[in-house]
Amino acid sequence: MKQFLIFVQKEFYHIFRDRKSLLIIILMPIVQIILFGFALTNEIKDSDIAILDESKDVATVEIIHRLDASRYFNVARYLHSQADIEAAFKTGKIRLVVVFQNKFRENLLHANHAQVQLLADATDPNTATTVTNYATSIIRDYQNDLTANAPLPYQIEPQVRMLYNPQLKGAYTFVPGVMAMILIIISAMMTSVSIVREKEINTMEVLLVSPLKPLLFILSKAIPYMFLSLVNVSTILVVSVTLLEVPINGSLLLLMGEALLFITTAVSLGLMISNVTNSQQTAQMISLLGLMLPTLLLGGFMFPIESMPKPLQFMSNIVPSKWFFIIVKDVMIKGLGFKMIWKETLILFGMTLFFLTISFSKFKIRLA
After folding, report:
1. CA-based, 20 to 30 A from 341: which of 52, 61, 65, 307?
2. CATH classification (class only), 47-147
3. How many CB atoms lie within 10 A of CB 209?
4. What pTM was estimated for this model as a whole?
């Protein structure tokens, strides 16, 4: 045990001696979680819109005021005719044009029917759909206030409730995704150079005469990075709760336990990469490019996996971050317990055993 602790201490010295890597390990999680939480969000705020009001009555003025007062829209221009609509879109700044028909309030009160036309710039389909949904919701709220929520004849009014994220904050999606991305990149990338570094600096001969068993040597390489990754998880959760206002609805103990399992999976993957490569540069390139792109594209938090072709959906099953992303969402956002995530947990545990088995066998071959 004493020799094992000495090797663990030696690995900590390697980490703290490399100031650049240490800076990446400590600062990158904080920078990325703040960047994704505040800057890179799928929420659309302060969109410039234009108004074509052919009625100019009390009702249209009130709706325009509500649109402008919301955090989603900024009334940037007032148009005078239909011919101005295309010119407004060509400026590239207007996302939505709201057109009120003539005698809007009169038609609404007497005929119980008034038309509002929403014209969106669909060069970005997702943005166009989002801004029209925002505008529709604001107009529907005005109608409900006008009629005092009284039911109208033959009117079907769907009632929409957004569970777990009623304000539709993008941070609720990005925090679990960024947590998975940071842990898989840092844990795997930093660990991937640990064993191959011993070969490059010609210290593998020392290991041959070391009394430490190969399995304990591999664990001594993994423990420091697991400890630093747990510190990163704690930092991410603190920043998420305090700055981004993302709640932890489930068990914090369960969340930390699942994070430890995912860290073990990522570290095991990094050790496997370190054992099958012959240089630190190769190991870093494989871990960075081979893990970051699959995590971003196939992890599920940037693009819905259900919308992908079947081959890509199948490939996403071998990406560890996909399963951790599901676990974090279920525990942190939905507040679910272990019995709802045991399948994902079992998959991560199986991946960990697979990576460790390959690492151990390759390391024994390297020592032979």
Report:
1. 307
2. alpha beta
3. 6
4. 0.74
